[in-house]
Every structure is written in C-alpha cells, then in structure tokens.
Design goal:
By secondary structure, the protein is mainly alpha-helical. The chain contains 4 helices and no strands.
C-alpha cells in the first residue's frame, strides 16, 4: 500500500506542475504541488516510522508515531511559510489544500483496497456480496 500511495502522490504533484505554464495564475498549481509534495514526504516518513514500530515496546511505538506526526506538522509549517514568503510563486490557500491531499489519497486507496479484499474474501467463500 505504501508504494501505491507514494506513486499516486508523486503522480499528483507531477500533474500539478504540468499545469503551471498553462494557467494564468501559476501560483495556484505550484502552491498545491508544494503542499502535496511536502505532505507526501511527511506521510512516507510517518508510515516508515510506524512500520519500524512493529514488534517493539509500546513506549517506543508511541514515540515513533509521535515523531512522524511532529515531522508532518513541521513540514506543513515549512510549506505554509514558503508560500507566505513568496506569494507570487505559491498560493497560500492552494498550499494548504495540497497539504490535505495525501490524507485524501490514503483514504481513497484504503477504501478501494478494503472493497477489493471484501470481494476477494466473498468469492473465496463461494458467493457474491448479494448472496450473503
């Protein structure tokens, strides 16, 4: 799932950057891509820390998860500060919306994977969802 999320997030950032030369106000897609990219890095870091926490003591697991969220918070502040310092290059509101995109992507991929696994489980049992 992590590989799919990284791929989709980088694809979204690339799509945003493709629109920069074709839009009258290029700060909007640039800001969106900035927020999306930095939040994607934070999401990746959080997942890596959570994966390392498997099999460790509860205190170490909590510390790994909290450090991932601290990195996410710091990168969000950095993205918004970059956008605020250079409003001609990055739109602040678009940057804030871009910061939300990895979360949206994670939810969408999770729902699709859960639906696929439910369908696979039902087919393995010998029936469809309507029959059960």
């Amino acid at each position: 799932m992590l590989a799919r999320l990284v791929y989709l997030n980088l694809l979204g950032v690339g799509v945003c950057l493709v629109f920069v030369p074709f839009i009258d106000n290029p700060a909007i897609p640039a800001g969106f891509a900035l927020g999306w990219f930095l939040s994607s890095i934070a999401t990746w870091f959080t997942y890596v820390r959570e994966r390392r926490a498997d099999g460790q003591a509860a205190e170490k697991t909590v510390q790994n998860i909290l450090s991932g969220f601290i990195v996410r918070f710091v990168l969000a502040i950095v993205a918004l500060l970059i956008a605020a310092r250079a409003p001609e290059k990055f739109h602040v509101l678009a940057t804030g919306l871009g910061l939300l995109m990895p979360t949206v992507t994670t939810v969408i991929v999770g729902v699709i994977q859960a639906k696929d696994s439910t369908i696979d489980n039902n087919e393995a049992k010998g029936g469809t969802m309507e029959q059960q």
